[in-house]
Design brief:
GO biological process, one term: methionine biosynthetic process
Distance between the termini: 54 Å
Shape: elongated
Strand order of the largest sheet: 6-11-9-10-7
CATH topology of the largest domain: Conserved hypothetical protein from pyrococcus furiosus pfu- 392566-001, ParB domain
Protein name: CBS domain containing protein
Organism: Methanoregula boonei (strain DSM 21154 / JCM 14090 / 6A8)
CATH class of the largest domain: Alpha Beta
Keywords: Amino-acid biosynthesis, CBS domain, Methionine biosynthesis
Number of helices: 11
Strand content: 15-25%
Length: 270
C-alpha cells in the first residue's frame, strides 16, 4: 500500500517544458510594414521586438490598427512587457496569462535574451487531465460510499492493452498534447481501478491512447485496488457504450476540447 504523503511527490511542470523554442521576432528599428508581412506569412498575431538579441517590447496585430505602414516598430510596439523565466512554474505562467488577458509571454534569460515563447494554448495543454492527490483520494472516498468497499492505493505499471476504457470519445488536439508530453517525459500517471480480472481506466484516456499510438506497452499509474468482486457503475457504462479496448474510443478530429474553445473566447480581444 502506498502511504498518502508519497503521492504528493510529483515533478512540477515548468515553462521550459511547454514553450515554443522557434520564435519569429522583429527588429526594433524596422518598419510596421515588415510586421504586416510577417503576420501574412506566418499567420501569427504578434511578435517579440528585439534590439540586437535583447527583448525590448512586443507588437501585436491590434497595435497596427491606426498606424501607417511606414511608421517605426519602436513607435507602434508595446513597451510594457511581461516576460517569463524558463524555470517558472507553468501554473504561475497560467495566472499571469489569464489574469492579464495577454495571449503570449516571451521567455527570456536573466539578461533578457529571447529563449522562446509560451502561449495561452501551451498553458491549457499543460493543465488538461492534470492528476492531483485530491482527485485520487476523492475517487476512493466515492467508491467507499457507493459500494461499501475498502480500496487501497498503490503506484505501479499497468499494461496498456489491458485497460478497459470508460470514456467513448477523446479530442484530437488534446491527444496531440499528450503525445508531446510523453515524448518529452512529462506525462503524469493515469488512474485505474484494479479488481479481480480487470483494470478499469478512470482518468487518463488521452494519455493511454497517446501511449498506444507511440507503441508504448505500459504506463505509470495510480492503482486503486478493489479486492471485492463487484461490478462498478463505470463498468456497466462501458458495457452500455460497447467499450472493450482503447480501440473502441472515438477520436474527434473535428472538435476542439470545450476548455480550449471557451478559453479562447474569454481572452480574445477585438
Amino acid at each position: 500500500m502506498l502511504p498518502a504523503p508519497e503521492i504528493v511527490q510529483m515533478d512540477k511542470k515548468k515553462v521550459k517544458d511547454y514553450m515554443t523554442y522557434d520564435v519569429v521576432s522583429v527588429d526594433l528599428h524596422g518598419k510596421v510594414e515588415s510586421v504586416i508581412e510577417k503576420i501574412q506569412q506566418t499567420k501569427h498575431d504578434g511578435f517579440p521586438v528585439l534590439d540586437g538579441d535583447v527583448v525590448v517590447g512586443y507588437i501585436a496585430a491590434r497595435d497596427l490598427l491606426f498606424v501607417k505602414p511606414g511608421e517605426t516598430i519602436e513607435a507602434a510596439m508595446s513597451g510594457e512587457l511581461i516576460v517569463a523565466d524558463p524555470e517558472m512554474d507553468i501554473n504561475d505562467a497560467a495566472r499571469v496569462i489569464f489574469r492579464s488577458g495577454i495571449q503570449k509571454l516571451p521567455v527570456v534569460d536573466e539578461k533578457n535574451h529571447l529563449l522562446g515563447i509560451i502561449s495561452n494554448s501551451d498553458v491549457i495543454r499543460s493543465q488538461i487531465e492534470h492528476v492531483s492527490p485530491e482527485k485520487v483520494f476523492n475517487f476512493m472516498t466515492t467508491l467507499k460510499k457507493l459500494y461499501g468497499v475498502d480500496p487501497t492505493l498503490n503506484r505501479g505499471i499497468v499494461p496498456v492493452k489491458d485497460l478497459l476504457p470508460t470514456q467513448s470519445k477523446i479530442y484530437q488536439d488534446e491527444l496531440e498534447g499528450r503525445i508531446y508530453e510523453i515524448k518529452k517525459g512529462l506525462a503524469e500517471p493515469i488512474i485505474v481501478v484494479r479488481r479481480p480480472g480487470r483494470i478499469i481506466l478512470v482518468d487518463g484516456h488521452h494519455r493511454a491512447i497517446a501511449a498506444k499510438k507511440l507503441g508504448i506497452t505500459a504506463l505509470d499509474a495510480y492503482i486503486i485496488e478493489v479486492n471485492e468482486d463487484i461490478e462498478l457503475g463505470m463498468e456497466r457504462t462501458a458495457h452500455t457504450m460497447n467499450l472493450k479496448t482503447l480501440d473502441d474510443v472515438q477520436v474527434l478530429d473535428y472538435a476542439r476540447h470545450p476548455l480550449v474553445a471557451i478559453t479562447h473566447r474569454l481572452v480574445k480581444r477585438p
